[in-house]
Design brief:
With 172 residues, the protein is an alpha/beta fold. It contains five helices and seven strands. It has a seven-stranded mixed β-sheet with strand order 3-2-1-4-5-7-6, with helices on one face. 33% of the residues are buried. Bound molecules: S-adenosylmethionine.
Length: 172
């Protein structure tokens, strides 16, 4: 088997995995535009006292903006895709932000969120109910900004339009 065949097989496996995730109602990778991230962090009044968690952190862009521009104390990203986890580790190293950013290769439903003061998310409708239950159970004094999707029961405090969707701010 030559290299091109291996690349083809890897691409097919990756696309198949995306399809399975979509069928199972899981959030697939779609990065937020950087200006939307800035608007989301402004909406939550993110500042140097905050410990920010990005649930499903993709390539880690939310974490780097939170540290570089909003000076958060610590930014933690939880990402289940190994490739994205590794990419974000490399980008954090290149940006020299490793001391303030931690990325975990993990399912965020298995992470304790009780230390978060801010949580950001850009997921999909299918996970919002289960995540809402987890956050209510574990978190106190936390601001949550969700891009595009609302929680089914919690009432948002504010919403802003960013591009073609809204971002919702919750306070618990
Ligand atoms: C729409 S992307 C958002 C990426 C990033 N937060 C951003 O704004 O650029 C959603 C990400 O969540 C990840 N994800 C979905 N479900 C997850 C789970 N249960 N645990 C960890 N990561 C998850 C996906 O792999 C994907 O990278």
């Amino acid at each position: 088997m030559n290299l091109i065949s291996i690349v083809y097989i890897l691409i097919i496996v990756y696309l198949f995995k995306i399809l399975i995730d979509l069928i199972r109602g899981q959030a697939i990778y779609f990065p937020l535009p950087k200006n939307t991230i800035r608007k989301m962090l402004k909406l939550a009044k993110v500042n140097r006292k905050d410990v920010l968690y990005d649930l499903g952190s993709g390539d880690g862009r939310v974490l780097r903006i939170a540290v570089k521009e909003f000076k958060v104390k610590k930014a933690i990203g939880i990402e289940k895709s190994l490739i994205l986890f590794l990419i974000s580790k490399i980008l954090n190293k290149i940006s020299k932000l490793e001391d303030k950013i931690e990325v975990k290769w993990k399912d965020f439903f298995k992470e304790d969120l009780s230390k978060a003061t801010v949580i950001t998310l850009y997921l999909n409708f299918g996970v919002m109910k289960k995540l809402e239950e987890k956050i209510i159970k574990e978190c106190k004094n936390v601001r949550i900004v969700s891009a595009a999707h609302k929680f089914p029961n919690l009432k948002y405090k504010k919403k802003i339009k960013t591009g073609h969707f809204y971002c919702y701010l919750y306070e618990i």
